[in-house]
Design a protein that fits this description.
The complex is a heterodimer of chains A (617) and B (152). By secondary structure, chain A is an alpha/beta fold. Chain A is 40% helix and 14% strand. Chain A contains 25 helices and 19 strands. Chain B folds into two domains: 57 residues, no CATH class; 80 residues, Glutaredoxin, CATH 3.40.30. In chain B, a hairpin with a 2-residue loop joins strand 3 and strand 4. The two termini of chain B are 25 Å apart. The chains are: A alpha/beta (617), B alpha+beta (152). Bound molecules: flavin mononucleotide (FMN) and FE2/S2 (inorganic) cluster (FES). The site of flavin mononucleotide (FMN) has 23 residues of chain A, from strand 10 and helix 21.
Chain lengths: 617, 152
């Protein structure tokens, strides 16, 4: 393929691609996102290739390796088009049958269909599965339709048409205005209006400016940005192109974390293809707009997601933040005006330009427009990535889409906003999810991690977990964050060991407030949030640890004991064999016992017992 | 790593100082740690103070200044894995290998490290053994993850 010279050629090319598209062909879309990779999708892809060749179906069947479909709980996911049959938990051994039964004879394989646990019914089409029904997959839905390593696929489904529209019919100011009217707010955490940053950066003094995509995704438990980069990298490039045009920029960076090798690979490939097609580089689509993108790879530091730290890292330095007396839109990367947006923010841009601000702003709430992708994980039936309109309630996300809590356990809390966010209790389940509502209750939207916790999660332990994480990740430059976190962690650890005092709670609160007021960057300023929110909504758990020296959830090692229920133990000795400390004894076929003096509370016995005889008290 | 190989990496980035982290990343990938000699060489070539390279190596989690074991065992400590019991999996691995997270066994066979979310939360707790993902690992099953390489 040669360079696409102008918008007309782009349209012609798209039409040609659509014409080529599958007349009478079956497309087998196989998810190859990182989640499904862990289930072994790569082998499934190879075997599909072999089987298709064996049946000499090369002309009738096309294998499409796609990015993440979102329903990671049920990987490997295989969707057949145009029949729209959705197969889940597909393994290598199922492939032959899918080809010979479904593709050749048109028979649906019941056991591979999703089964609704509520009704027991098998569901055939993706769109009828409850997990997908309440979603509005505007941004993420395309993942299932394209091979992310083929620019032609993206162009076929309308890719780069928003860029063409912007370059050919809109002044840069008009683009910014359109974004303004759409109400798009940054998806990276703060929810700052995108247009405001763009406009300030446009007006800032300087010949050289930058646009940057934040793909550091440091929130542990969140992976939507990665799935977008992996599954639809061109949509992010297109967003950045439009942004660059609007702001008046010719250089861009994508800052990706190193833990995402597949995302890096796919973005690199996408950039190379876009260059070849003339969609990046000089005189894009025959206009005088030129733009290029480089990738910068992080070294695994959470704070590098913060704007000033990120820029310092791109410059090849330690990722230490600086105080933002002067904003990065004025002086950022190499002291030049720089506009940073999150992956998902950029991915929204082509959609807004294509469909118009008016259409876009109808989705969502008064203050938060559009959709948001959440990574719904933890103690939840349907783990995965979900894209929902702003304003949906937590209950709908967790119970309707997520299918509730597994193993008949009880919901306890949901954590949003990652290490800067908070834990929300059951009483707030009817909260409408948007930027402002979440802030109001002491959490935040963050980048979109949503970690569900059940009755076996200890909220004091969760606070300790986040403090540990943050202390580890604090860059250590400013005193309030460095020492504050250290003190908070010391006190909370003492509480989890049964050494806490009631006065500690007041002290924690005070240190937290000090950090909020005095820390240098938002890492320190928001660091107390997980702690403070758990103290606010789960005070009883703190009191149980302090006053009763008990961990009600059975997590904190110093406060629990493993015990064998005599009535349930069959004396099979499976646990005794595995116990590393030989702490379990008993006669064959007789109830066994744990010697508390020897027990190191590793929990292996509980994991092993088939009869549920081991309890934590 | 031979000097010529390091030079090749440096040249592939046009000996651009701002790419020092990327260069160090590649050395780390290759050697699994950053040998002192190599750091000195990079510093010289890029005309950067060695102290800056040292400060970068100690700041970013991926860099190691000491050699790593033959096998790499990484336990995900992301929030999703944590609520599903990653802590107990890590304790068990620490106990079996007789090292703490971040350390390497005496016989240089295993390095045990942690990572914060690898994006396979649906399968948590996750342990990555030499690049291979193991999902739904429990404390009881943790030992099995190590088995294969041990036998080799
Ligand atoms: C400690 C810290 C970590 C952050 N991590 C991320 C991140 O991983 N990804 C991200 O997009 N934004 C992150 N942010 C927010 C960025 O600083 C910045 O606000 C955002 O990338 C701007 O893009 P947006 O306006 O499109 O949201 C982080 C902020 C802080 C303080
Ligand atoms: S938290 Fe472990 S993979 Fe995401």
């Amino acid at each position: 393929m040669k360079r696409i010279k102008n918008s007309r050629e782009l349209e012609k090319f798209r039409k040609a691609l659509l014409k080529q598209e599958s007349g009478g062909k079956t497309t087998v879309a196989i998810c190859t996102g990182t989640g499904c990779q862990a289930y072994g999708c790569q082998e499934v892809v190879w075997v599909f290739g072999d089987v298709v060749r064996k049946h000499k179906l090369g002309k009738k069947v096309e294998i499409l390796t796609t990015g993440c479909h979102g329903f990671c709980e049920k990987g490997v996911i295989v969707v057949l088009h145009p029949q729209e049959i959705f197969y889940q938990r597909v393994q290598v051994k199922d492939v032959e049958e899918i080809v010979s039964a479904t593709i050749l004879r048109g028979e649906v394989i019941e056991r591979l269909l999703y089964q609704d646990p509520k009704t027991g019914k098998r569901i055939r089409k993706k769109k009828d599965i409850p997990f997908y029904q309440k979603q509005n997959r505007l941004i993420f839905g395309n993942n299932g339709l394209i091979n992310p390593t083929r620019i032609e696929d993206y162009i076929r489904i309308g890719g780069y048409s928003a860029l063409a529209k912007a370059l050919n019919g809109m002044e840069p100011e008009e683009v910014i205005n359109e974004i303004k009217r759409s109400g798009l707010r940054g998806r990276g955490g703060g929810g700052f209006p995108a247009w405001k940053k763009w406009e300030t950066c446009r007006k800032a003094h300087g010949d050289i400016k930058y646009v940057i995509c934040n793909a550091d995704e440091g929130d542990p438990g969140a992976y939507m940005d990665r799935s977008l980069l992996e599954g639809n990298p061109h949509s992010i490039l297109e967003g950045m192109l439009i942004g660059a045009y609007a702001i008046g920029v010719s250089e861009g960076y994508i800052y990706v974390r190193r833990e995402y090798p597949l995302a890096i690979q796919n973005v690199e490939a996408a950039i190379a293809q876009a260059k070849k097609f003339g969609l990046l580089g000089r005189n894009i689509l025959g206009t005088d707009f030129s733009f290029d993108i480089k990738i910068s790879i992080g070294g695994g530091a959470f704070v590098c997601g913060e704007s000033t730290a990120l820029m310092s890292s791109i410059e090849g330095k330690r990722g230490e933040p600086r105080a933002k007396y002067i904003h990065t839109v004025e002086k950022g990367l190499w002291n030049r005006p720089s506009n940073l947006n999150n992956v998902e923010t950029w991915a929204n841009v082509p959609l807004i330009i294509n469909k118009g601000a008016k259409w876009y702003s109808r989705i969502g709430t008064e203050g938060s427009k559009g959709t948001k992708i959440f990574s719904l994980v933890g103690k939840i039936q349907n783990t995965g990535l979900v894209e929902v309109p702003m304003g949906i309630t937590l209950r709908e996300i967790i119970f309707d889409i997520g299918g509730g809590i597994p193993d008949g356990k009880k919901f306890k809390a949901v954590q949003t906003g990652g290490p800067s966010g908070g834990c929300l209790p059951e009483s707030l389940l009817d909260l409408q999810v948007d930027f402002d509502q979440l802030n109001e209750v002491g959490s935040m939207m963050g980048s979109g991690g949503m970690i569900v916790m059940d009755e076996t999660t200890c909220m004091v332990d969760i606070a300790k977990y986040f403090l540990n994480f943050l202390l580890d990740e604090s860059c250590g430059m400013c005193f309030p964050c460095r020492e504050g976190l250290d003190q908070l962690l010391t006190i909370v650890t003492a509480i989890t060991e049964g050494k806490g005092k009631l006065e500690d709670l007041q002290l924690l609160q005070e240190i937290g407030e000090m950090m909020r007021d005095a820390s240098l960057c938002a890492l320190g300023r928001t660091a107390p949030n997980p702690l403070i929110s758990t103290m606010r909504y789960f005070q009883d758990e703190y009191e149980a640890h302090i006053l009763k020296k008990k961990c009600p959830a059975g997590v904190c090692k110093a406060l629990i004991q493993y015990q064998i229920r005599k009535t349930k133990c069959t004396g099979c000795a499976a646990c005794a064999k595995l116990c590393p400390e030989k702490a379990i004894s008993g006669k064959k076929d007789q109830p066994h016992e744990i010697d508390p003096a020897k027990c190191i509370k590793c929990g292996i016995c509980k994991d092993t017992c088939q009869y549920g005889a081991i309890q934590v008290i | 790593m031979k000097k010529a190989e390091v030079d090749k990496i440096i040249n592939s980035y046009g000996a651009d100082r701002s790419q020092v982290i990327a260069i160090m990343n590649e050395v780390q990938d290759e050697e699994r740690y950053l040998p002192e000699e190599t750091l000195k060489h990079i510093a010289q070539r890029l005309k950067l103070p060695l102290a800056q390279l040292y400060s970068i190596s100690t700041f970013y989690r991926v860099f190691s200044l000491v050699p790593k074991g033959k096998h790499q065992c990484t336990v995900c400590m992301g929030t999703a894995c944590h609520v599903r019991g990653a802590e107990r999996v890590l304790s068990e691995l620490e106990r079996v290998l007789k090292v703490k997270a971040g350390e390497t066994t005496k016989d240089k066979q295993f390095s045990l490290d942690t990572v914060n979310c690898v994006g396979a939360c649906a399968l948590g707790p996750i342990v990555i053994m030499d690049g291979e993902y193991h999902g739904q690992v429990t404390a009881a099953k943790a030992r099995n993850v190590l088995k294969k390489p041990e036998a080799k």
